[in-house]
Amino acid sequence: MSAIEITGLVKRYGDVEAVRGIDLIIEEGEVFALLGPNGAGKTTIVEILEGHREATSGEVIVLGHDPSKAERAFKDRIGIVLQETSVEKELTVTEALTIYGGAYSRNLDKNKLVAIVGLTEKADARIGTLSGGQKRRLELALGIVGDPELIFLDEPTTGFDPSARREAWHVIDNLRNLGKTILLTTHYMDEAQNLSDRVAVISDGVIVAEGTPETLGGRELSATRITFRAPIGTSFPFDATVDGDVVTIEAQDPTTDVHRLTGWAIENGVELEDLTVTRPSLEDVYLALTEED
Amino acid sequence: MARPSSMSLISQQTGYETKLFYRTPIAAFFTIVFPLMLLVVFGALFGSEEIEELGVTVAQYYAPALAVFAAASATYTNIGIGTAAKRDEGILKRVRGTPLPAWNFFAGVVVSATIVAAVAVTLMMTVGVFAYGIVIYPRTLPAAIVTFLVGVACFASLGLLLAAVAPSGPAATAIANATLLPLAFFSGLFVPPSSETPDWIITLGNIFPLKHFNVAFQAAFLPNTTGSQFDWTALMVMTVWGVGALLLALRLFKWENTPKSGRKSQKKASA
Fold first, then answer.
1. Residue A86 included in any domain
2. Residues on chain A touching B99 (C-beta within 8 angstroms)
């Protein structure tokens, strides 16, 4: 059975349609990223799957449950990391993990959990004294304290500095290795690329592309691009786009094309300044997909 | 590991709520210390005057009256403000995402508030006994305890209703003060009733449960009585208010403030 099955999901707030017909299947053990700009509908979708909101129409099945029924057996199997940090500042880290963990039938070991998220030194500190990044890592710990099968991570690293993000990615990677199913939302390309098995790009309440980070939007089929600078007026024995002194070649067979290009340059004594060979990044694909009409 | 029982969850939640209470000094001050200060000040100002209709001194009247005020603050004010603030901070939403049954969560809130109210009332009455000569009669003690429990349940329900209707924590604070303080005056908690009390104030007091809480609780500490001093009318009025407030709160309660996610850009897109 799939972990998450979404069919024809629509969510309306008043006369505004935030989610406009989504179909999606996420398999058990998958790390799936919902990628999209702010306001695309990512959080609305995730909160419907968590049971925090009700769908206007369409069908949603999560771990075999209808999340809108808010069944205890369902909540016992999921872990939620909300987008906003929200923990009682009067409690200590360990107290919060004990209290929130107390409701689940299974618990991860508190000491290990605190170590996983890098808060061992802060275990007995009041939450009010933690930094923003430490609070987010506590959120992550609270989301997994009940040893869930399915974890929702709503923008788990927004506001992190680069090293904190690396650490959080490491934690998420460990969860993947434990066989957890993870649904995360993000607007960071590199996050989706590093963490997820599959990605869906959401724009304006619909899925505009779905695939692995490597194949998204036909990325693997796109031409490799060779760019360099050459003196204006140079003529080339091959197809090239010239913009001032910047030359771009769409290479169908990059290995041969680069060889021919450099061979020609050496023969003719042309210096290829700033020579680069790139494939369109996930970011290019994403920007192309989510561009405003 | 088995699913935890409601009993253990409620006791855990009660401990957690009580911990939050004593780590929030401002709430502890207004609930426990402030009513005691009022008793000392009122007692010093006109403590030895006698209230003829009741046969007690003013100080002997104020101890149970302010105990009732403390009990109402501990439940109505603290539950209302505390719960609305938790909603503001997204804590209710987090709780809702865990397997903790909602009623276990609220049972913890109410039991903890009841413990705080019991501490405040016990302190108040202890001061009353030692400083102002109030007598505790074993004969009327059951009536005092039952009145306390019914009153606390009634005002806890009203606190949950306050949390349900207040749009935010600060709004809940404003509503709590704007309702409880005037009501305390109308209900004779700060000004003992006398032959000069205007009819409309008496009528107003009779409608709401606070005056009944006070009258029934006072009755258990009056000298020159004989029976068990249960005030069934007062208990009935408080029960009706409590049940009504609870039903309304259940209908109106929200776990998070109005959602705003996904709206802004959608509006822009549809404009």
1. no
2. 72-73, 75-76, 103-105, 146
A238-291: pLDDT as tens digits? 788 888 888 888 887 888 888 888 888 888 888 888 888 887 777 777 777 777
Which of B91, B96, B269 has its CB closest to that of A52? B96
In this complex, do B1 and A99 lie within 8 Å of one another by their Cβ atoms? no
Query: Do residues A106 and A147 make contact, with C-beta atoms less than 8 angstroms apart?
Result: yes
Nearest CA to CA, how far is A182 from chain B (Å)?
A: 16
Q: Has the ipTM of the complex gone over 0.90?
A: no
For residue A227, give its domain range.
Answer: 222-286
* Rounded average pLDDT over A40-48: 92
CB contacts, 8 Å: B256 with chain A: 52
Structure tokens at A275: 């020579």
Contact A13 B100 (CB under 8 A): no
Q: What average pLDDT does the segment A200-217 reach? A: 87
Residue A220: which pLDDT band, with cuts at 50, 70 and 90?
low
Looking at the domain assignment, is residue A93 inside a domain? Answer: no
Record: contact B98-A91, CB cut-off 8 A: no
> For residue B48, what are the CA distances in angstroms to A154, A284, B37, B214?
64, 85, 17, 20
pLDDT 10s digits, A84-119: 878 899 999 999 999 999 999 999 999 989 988 889
What share of chain B has pLDDT > 70, as a percent? 95
- Phi and psi torsions of B214, nearest 5°: -65, -50
Intervals of chain B under pLDDT 50? 261-271
Chain A environment of B263 (Cβ under 8 Å):
13, 16, 18, 39
Q: Ramachandran region of residue B262, left (φ > 0), alpha (ψ -120 to 50) or beta?
A: left
Are A16 and B267 a contacting pair at CB < 8 A? yes
Hey, what are A238's tokens?
């091959």
Instruction: Retrieve residue A254's tokens.
Output: 């990059």
Which residues fall within 8 angstroms of residue B268, CB to CB, at 6 or more apart?
A39
A105/B3 touch (CB, cutoff 8 Å), yes or no: yes
Nearest residue of B to residue A48, measured between CA atoms = B97
Q: How far is A44 from chain B (nearest CA, A)?
A: 7
Q: Closest Cα of chain A to B102: distance in Å?
A: 10
Structural domain count of chain A: 1
Return the domain boundaries, chain B. 9-256
Sign of CA dihedral A235, A241, A247, A253: negative
- Name the band, by pLDDT with cuts 50, 70 and 90, for residue A158: confident
Nearest to A43 among B8, B262, B268 (CB): B262
Tokens standing for residue B90 = 């997204």
Q: Which residue has the higher pLDDT, A219 or A167?
A: A167
Residue A67 lies in a domain: no
